[in-house]
Amino acid sequence: MRRRRFLGRVGVAGAVGTAGCGFRGDADGSRGDGPGADPSRRFRVADEGFEVAVDDGGFEPIAVRGVNLGMAKPGRFPGEAAITRAEYDRWLRLMGELNVNVVRVYTVHPPAFYRALAAYNRSHADPIYVLHGNWIGEETLREAGDATALSAAFDRSVRQVVDAVHGATTVEPEPGYASGTYDADVSDAVLGYVVGIEWPPAVVAETDRVNEATGYDGKFLAAPDGSPFEAWLAGRLDAAVAYEASEYGAQRPAAFTNWVTTDPLEHPYEPFVNEDAVSVDPDAVVATDAYDAGTFAAYHVYPYYPPLLNETPEYVDYVDHRGEPNSYAGYLNDLVDATDHPLLVAEFGVPASRGIAQRDVHGRDQGGHTETEQGEIIAAMYADIREAGTAGGVVFSWHDEWFKRTWNLAPFSDPNRRPFWSNVQTPEQRFGLLAFDPADAVPLDGSPEAWADATAATAEREPVRLGDGADAARELTAVRVTSDAAYLNVRLELAGLDGEPDWDATNYLLAIGTTDAGARALPYGVDAAAPADFIVRLGGPDTSRVTVHPRYDAFAYEYGAEAGLDLDRYRNPIPGDFTPLRLVINRGYTVPVTDEYVPFESVETGELRYGNGNPESPAYDSLADVHVAPSSDAIELRLPWGLLNVADPSRRRRLGDLWTDGLDTHETMESIDVAAASYAPDGADGTARPLDAETNLTHAAPGAADGALESLEFVPPTWDRPAYTERLKESADAVAEVFERYARGEE
């Protein structure tokens, strides 16, 4: 049901809203001073989006420039509600500096959030508004099947939200939820409510199946011709608005969360049935004459999923306001055209992660971006959102979330320990504008002082000298190893680097052992053995990679059959065989309409990128794995724990024998064996040249004897709470700029 076509029967949402209650202030009830002290604000939704009136003034439009704020931080699950007042104060200040005018929260936060918001808005002329939600777990929905069974619990949770923002409740402790005394009234900063989550299609379908389609006719919201699920949502919103009106004499806009999967559009090119099986139409829910504040549509829209965004020709070929092909803009314009309510993009963004999980046809992938690229893409997406005629957009997310998992990597880590370490391979953990860096991380910029406390070994024997001018670069004076909550770090110290190494003359090899499997023959034609589960070859910016012993290849074990691999090679590998490290990004599908088959796809995630990893450096590259430092005669590299099959570095736990015990068995690493060597390559493939010596390695640290590399034994530390530092990513600058640009355009 379209809103504008239904106005004659139900009434117009958009008249003067009801005033809120004003700020009570901090816990002591003080009202405070400052340019933003104690205004009375009213909110409503008009045809083009949100509007706000201050005191007795008229309504003015406000376009949303927002960020989503979750409840997790490193070392804590979101349900622990562990964010402190100092953190909220600091983050709100930073948001304001980035020209953010709305923060969206998904559930009731600790009282500190509301106190911090009240304090911020008392002291700033330009307030930060709130879009507030209530949380209902996906598993809870799936277990219920029929959403109507959860009506009472859902309504209670929304009432709790309303009481919390009015500073008028005490919430008793309950596992998984925030609690405490809510005494800061921030209702005059609450722009609206966005309830619920991304609705699972199976729940929508089951609710529609078991309930009669009678619609809903409420005091404030109605769904006269809505499906049972849409009617249920209308009832929940109606109950929320009614509660706030009766208890606090206030109204504000309210909507429910939606996403591409349950949008009301037809998507004939979508290959997965569940991604276009059911619709939840925001236009089916309309405001009555009694609801002055009005309702709107709120969608989570990302550029890379579902596949329909990559496969629908009208989207792929859509030309945006820049004159460029842009499937994201194509979808947004289609959605806005089909929606009568003002439309808010309540989540959008891309992660600055090393790993990748989904491709976008125009390069806005789920992962694989530097922080600079992340900012450029988010800024472009916000421009797309505004140019499509929406009510604004809310970036996902404010900060990185270590507890998150990503579909293609979830089986390889311990779900109970994810918040305790930073898995840079996992895109879902890296959407934030605010980064959490391990406090003891090496900067990866060649600085020797960062390695002072590292475990070290010097070379025990003289190198083989070839007299070709590269002997100093091949001579290893020491190898140093350290670790942090994100990486295993290794530094090779050399007799002399005259600028960038001559990679045609010198390559380096690291043998890394985590499983106590004993000595194994090495690849690249090296006639030596080492206790190696992983091999790192450093052969220059285009030919450096990490490879894995086939039997320990988690990708092959989990996805090998789908990828068409010869699994016998992995169960019973031949000596010296090591295979690429890969990430699956698409398991294959057939596109309806065209019957085109899009095959299984993976990327080689073991490839190593050269650059400077220090955020303070003008040359900073957030995806750098390797740094060459001629000034300190060193080469440094950092290897993500997830790349090394470590399921929980905080407890020093790794994946076990995959082909015997599967992925669910985790074993303790007592130590990690690290051996370093140099050699002269014979061709671009990195094969070692033959030498008239015991091995064809030119040098090794700690050493080599009897045809085997000797290893440094490194014992990684363990921890209960990770030590970390906060840092705004480079992406924040681009977001601040685009927000400022569109804010100026509003004036």
Instruction: Tell me the radius of gyration.
Output: 29 Å
Q: Could you tell me the strand content as a percent range?
A: 15-25%
**Uncertain stretches:** 1-36
Global morphology: elongated
Q: How many DSSP E strands?
A: 43
Q: Could you describe the largest sheet, including whether it forms a barrel? A: 8 strands, parallel, barrel
**What's the multimeric state?**
single chain
**Helix and strand composition category:** alpha+beta
| Contiguous helical run count | 16
> Strands of the biggest beta sheet: in what spatial order?
4-5-6-9-12-14-15-18
Taking all residues together, what is the mean pLDDT? Answer: 94
Distance between the termini: 34 Å
Helical content (DSSP H or I, runs of 4+): 10-25%
